[in-house]
Each structure stands twice: as C-alpha cells, then as structure tokens.
C-alpha cells in the first residue's frame, strides 16, 4: 500500500513538473513574442521618425537649391537685360553706324555660361533671326534713318509721275515741275490716327504717302513710316528702296533687343520671391 502511494506521489510529482515545464516554455514563448513585437514597434517608430527627418532635410535641401538658383537667375537676368538694353539704346545714338556684332556678342556672353539661359531655345532662335548683313555691316541709328529720309522724300516727289517702266526726259521734267507746284498735304488734311482712323490707300498719291511718312518719323514712329513708304509705286518706290531696306533692318534689331530685354525682365521677375505680409 505504501509502495503504491509512493508511486502515485512520484507520478503526481512528475506530472506537476511536466505541467510547470510546459507552462514555463509557454510563458517564455509569450515573453519572447512580446519582446519581439515591442522591438518591431520600436524599430518601426524609429524608421518613421528617420523618414520624416529625411523628408524634412530633402525638402530643405531642395528649397536651398531653388533659392540659390533663383538668386543666380536674378543676377543673370539683370546682366542679360543690360546687354539687350545696350543694343537697343545704341540704335538711338549719334553714331553713323551702329556696331551690332559686338553688342550681340555681349548678349551671347551673358547667356553662354548662364544657369538660367544657357540652353534657352527662345534666346537662341531670336539671335538666329538677326540678319547676317546687320552683323557684318552694322545698322543705321534712328537719327541716320530720319536724316536719309529727307533725300528720299525729295526724290520721291520729283519722280512722282514716273512709273515702273521709267519714262522720257520730258516726263521726268514734268514730274519735277509738279513737285514744285503741288501743295503740301499739311495744308489740306491732318495726320490720321493709326489706331482708329481708316485710310483709303487707293486715294493716296506719292505726295500724301511721303508726307504721312514724315509725320510718323517726327513722332519717332519708324515702323509706321515704313508702312507708309511701302505704299509707293514706280520710280518713287525705287528711289526709296535702299532707305526701306535700312529702316527694316533697323526695326528688326530694335524689336529683337526689345523682345530679349522683356524676356530677361520676365525671368528676373519670376526669380524674385514674393514676400508675404503678416498682420
């Protein structure tokens, strides 16, 4: 009986030990899983914090790069604007011939190593549009255009009766005589407003055309003067052809310089940060 009790006690003890061992293993497993989950959550939190810090640093770096680029673009746009205005103002100078090539090279130099304009297609295409003759020989300034017009006006009036095929000496003489007798349109009509008044082109004669062109030149409107002189026909048109060619090249260079200066101003304005007033 006692032996049996001892056996039962030993078996019970073994059972208790087995249960405790299983429970210990289960508790260890649960603890280990809890530790792993805690570590995983901690790592995930650190990764999120690091990602947020990296995003902030990347944003700051990008903002600094953009600010640096805008600062450079602002300075470079000013340099380009100065070069373009130099070309534009030269067309109003007292020189007999404006040296275009050197001023165009100044514009190219302002864009050659530029961060903002180096590969700018607009500037490249505009500079490509400059006539080679203007680069080689220069262009007359506005003062020279106006001065040369006096001779063109006189010759156009003297040959007003001569058509496309020319004429006899008698016709030239009659045309010259007419130029002395015809009353100036200034005494019979006023200058039309080009923005609101229509002009009957067919009703204009040579004297009307050159008078309108003169009024436009006196108002510093070479472009409108060219439009009027382009209406001439026959011998007067031939007499004015060289003047028209020079005036057109002058206008082309002026428009190119204006376009590039305006473009440089626009780029410079974009590069200037807008301040926000807080109240």
- Beta-strand share of residues: under 5%
The average pLDDT value, as a whole number, equals: 82
State the helical fraction: over 70%
Counting DSSP E segments of at least 2 residues, the number of strands comes to 0
What is the CA-based Rg, rounded? 44 Å
In angstroms, what separates the terminal alpha carbons? 100 Å
Largest sheet: none
Note the topology.
Elements: H1 2-90, H2 100-112, H3 121-128, H4 132-137, H5 142-158, H6 169-181, H7 206-218, H8 222-229, H9 234-271
Structural key phrases:
279 residues, mainly alpha, 9 helices, disordered C terminus
Overview of this protein structure:
The protein is rod-shaped. With 279 residues, it is mainly alpha-helical. The chain has helices at residues 2-90, 100-112, 121-128, 132-137, 142-158, 169-181, 206-218, 222-229, 234-271. It has 9 helices and no strands. The model is unreliable at 274-279 (pLDDT under 50).
Q: What is the gist of this entry?
A:
The chain is mostly helical and 279 residues long. It contains nine helices and no strands.
């Amino acid at each position: 009986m006692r032996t049996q009790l001892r056996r039962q006690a030993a078996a019970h003890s073994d059972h208790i030990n087995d249960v405790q061992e299983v429970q210990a293993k289960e508790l260890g497993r649960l603890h280990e899983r809890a530790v792993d989950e805690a570590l995983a959550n901690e790592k995930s939190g650190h990764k999120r914090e690091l990602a947020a810090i990296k995003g902030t640093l990347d944003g700051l770096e990008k903002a600094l790069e953009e600010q640096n680029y805008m600062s450079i673009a602002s300075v470079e746009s000013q340099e380009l604007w100065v070069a373009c205005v130099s070309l534009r103002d030269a067309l109003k100078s007292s020189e007999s011939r404006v040296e275009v090539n050197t001023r165009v090279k100044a514009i190219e130099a302002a864009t050659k190593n530029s961060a903002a304009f180096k590969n700018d297609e607009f500037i490249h295409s505009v500079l490509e549009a400059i006539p080679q003759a203007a680069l080689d020989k220069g262009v007359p300034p506005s003062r020279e255009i106006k001065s040369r017009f006096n001779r063109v006006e006189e010759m156009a009036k003297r040959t007003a009766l001569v058509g496309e095929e020319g004429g006899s000496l008698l016709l030239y003489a009659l045309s010259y005589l007419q130029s002395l007798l015809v009353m100036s349109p200034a005494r019979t009509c006023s200058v039309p407003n080009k923005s609101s008044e229509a002009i009957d082109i067919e009703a204009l004669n040579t004297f009307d055309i050159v008078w309108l062109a003169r009024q436009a030149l006196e108002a510093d409107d070479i472009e409108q003067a060219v439009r009027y002189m382009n209406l001439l026909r026959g011998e007067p048109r031939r007499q004015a052809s060289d003047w028209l060619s020079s005036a057109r090249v002058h206008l082309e260079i002026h428009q190119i310089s204006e376009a590039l200066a305006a473009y440089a101003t626009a780029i410079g304005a974009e590069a200037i940060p807008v301040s926000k007033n807080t109240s």
